[in-house]
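Bit of a strange request maybe. I'm writing a small parser for structure token strings and I need a real example to test against, not something I typed by hand. Could someone generate the tokens for this chain?
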Amino acid sequence: MLQNTKTSCGCPISAVFWQKWGFPIRSGHTFAARRGWLGLGTVVFGAAASLLLCYLRTMKTTVEEPDLVPGTRQAHWAPRFVSPVRTALVSFCVRAMTRSRQHRLAFSFYVAVIVCIALSLIHTQISNPALRVVQQDFLAETFLIMSLAVFGMRSVFSLPISLTANWVWRITQLRPSEQYISATRTAVLGLAVIPAWLLCALLSVSLRPWHHVAAHLAVLAVFGWIFAELSLIGMSTVPFTCSYLPGKVHVQVLFWSFMVLLVVFSLASSEVEMPALNNPLQYTSIIIVLIITAVGLYAFNRHRAKSAVIYFEELPPELITSLGLVSGPISMVSSRAGTNAPSKLM
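Reply from user aminoacidic:
Good idea to test on real output. This should exercise your parser:
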């Protein structure tokens, strides 16, 4: 077929090129060809304009500006909680994420996957209006969105923002460590669990039946609570303040490791939940088990927080290694010298 195709130049290589890239070269598809060239020109022009804007606005100030963007003089609204420690820590986390380029870049790995999943769901619902029912694919993708949001935020919490923030929290640590860990839980719920749940709720607006959607959103909310409690296990630091040892933070390794594990978990969870949506007894047992698990993790973290010590620096383990080069007579002489030393001082 490629040999029989002729172009204006009569070159078979160009014919293969045009057919590979999907440009209609026959005379009966001139309208589609114009649309293809128009789309190609729009993409090229948009890419060139984006690169030019990035160069003019960003590249010249990369060396001159610090990694932490300075705050503005405008009034900032901050949520108020019962505890002042919780209010301060949540506000600190929000401003750290909005002002630090490093943390936004690390979290963007997870946000990019979440956006791709959301766009895939929207495309599926628009292209197939007849399939707007709760399916197993939708359950797996929403589980993946929730897990990526929580564990992505947890991985970003481990990166320090600045040495000044470290010392400010260290000097002002006047309250029990339990309040700091509880405030960290609130930050995870407010910055990861609630936004991910709201996104999944918006993506499920056009799905039917409604009772299946409500049941899945309830399960997803409990799963978000469980993920938040799991992210607090072993965490005895204030987010964005603990320094880390060089060579221990590998965002790309953590990202791909989490992706493999979370995809397997999402598929397994959707296979368990899908038949339970049509079986009230099975769904009730699943939701009860999830709530018991979440309450158990909450009690465990609360009990651990009472005796936890908030640390702000990660130190290498102190290891004393003996080479075993001391022989018998030398050890006896050294021991005698050690016992006679105090007598001489007396």
